[in-house]
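To illustrate the input format used throughout this study, we show a single complete record. The first block contains the structure-token representation of the backbone; no residue identities are included at this stage. The design step must infer an amino acid for every position from geometry alone.
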């Protein structure tokens, strides 16, 4: 009789676990995500809208880390210290080829530079200075945030179009984006890279003008993209689709003009800047973000080819084969 009761109790436990299902029975997946730029990179804003993330702390948990740049994220990917990395387009081929992360996949859009009706990074010169056109940069100094960055490659591409080559015809110095205005004002550089939000500085606008934009140089850029390794995707597909559903919901909230005032308050809190300086974010004055988190693979292929042409990688590759958009596509179907 005791044996029969024991079997009954054991069966009840098994049925109870089955009723809850595997997602509730197992521990939530921890997703370690990396980003670089607050606001521009959506990962910096995801946990600010936990109330919209219905799967958070159920099928997945989220740990978000800010990196100084995308190269350290590549190192973290190779070491297994980050699961989803928000990389720039030059860093993607560098990760795959130079760092040997051959199974890295593009899984979602970060943001796109130069899409119709949206912002494109600017390269600025003094309004009353000697540089009136690109060829006037011969013998001059240009400022880049980092050699091999997306901004740097666009700048080099434009100069290359006009027959100017690094070291032979001009010099490159590296400087953080917040210092670009001072570099130009103090005439330490003849051309500086201006990106959001620094490009909107009224003092910079008062003394400088755009000589060209990234779009002028390279067309539309798939500037940043979310990436993950193939094995991580295969082992955790269900939880990753849940995560993508929450990310889509949150992104669409930020993009909705009806939520803009509330979003600006979040941007202000994240960046510790006054709200009146942040009204541009997630509007047409900002970079373009696909509301379905679908990257522009045609643009990305062109970007990767350009990275090769400028000598930063040895060979290009088929971007489509290095992508897995099934996670975000499945997530988007849930929200229709």
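Output of the design step:
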């Amino acid at each position: 009789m005791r044996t029969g009761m024991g079997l009954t109790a054991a069966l009840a436990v098994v049925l109870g676990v089955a009723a809850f299902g595997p997602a509730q029975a197992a521990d939530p997946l921890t997703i370690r995500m990396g980003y670089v730029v607050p606001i521009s990179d959506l990962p910096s804003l995801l946990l600010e809208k936990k109330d919209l993330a219905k799967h958070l702390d159920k099928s997945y948990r989220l740990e978000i880390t800010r990196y100084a740049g995308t190269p350290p994220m590549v190192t973290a990917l190779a070491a297994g210290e980050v699961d989803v990395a928000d990389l720039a387009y030059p860093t993607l081929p560098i990760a795959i080829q130079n760092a040997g992360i051959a199974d890295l996949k593009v899984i979602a859009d970060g943001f796109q530079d130069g899409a119709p009706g949206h912002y494109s990074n600017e390269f600025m010169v003094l309004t009353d200075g000697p540089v009136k056109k690109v060829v006037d940069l011969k013998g001059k100094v240009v400022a880049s945030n980092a050699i091999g960055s997306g901004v740097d490659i666009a700048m080099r591409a434009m100069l290359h179009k006009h027959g100017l080559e690094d070291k032979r015809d001009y010099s490159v110095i590296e400087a953080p984006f917040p210092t670009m205005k001072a570099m130009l004002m103090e005439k330490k550089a003849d051309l500086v890279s201006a990106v959001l939000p620094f490009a909107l500085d009224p003092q910079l606008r008062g003394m400088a003008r755009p000589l060209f934009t990234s779009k002028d140089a390279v067309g539309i850029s798939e500037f940043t993209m979310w990436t993950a390794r193939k094995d991580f995707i295969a082992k955790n597909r269900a939880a990753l689709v849940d995560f993508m559903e929450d990310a889509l919901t949150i992104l669409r909230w930020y993009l909705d003009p009806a939520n803009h005032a509330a979003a600006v308050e979040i941007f202000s809190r994240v960046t510790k800047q006054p709200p009146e300086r942040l009204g541009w974010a997630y509007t047409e004055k900002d970079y373009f973000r696909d509301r379905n988190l679908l990257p522009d693979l045609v643009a990305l292929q062109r970007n990767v080819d350009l990275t090769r042409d400028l000598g930063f990688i040895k060979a290009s590759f088929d971007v489509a084969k290095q992508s897995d958009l099934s996670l975000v596509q499945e997530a988007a179907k849930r929200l229709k």
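Structural context for interpreting the output: Strands lie at 29-35, 60-66, 84-88, 104-113, 122-126, 141-144, 171-174, 192-194, 208-213, 221-229. The CA atoms of residues 100 and 188 lie 38 Å apart.
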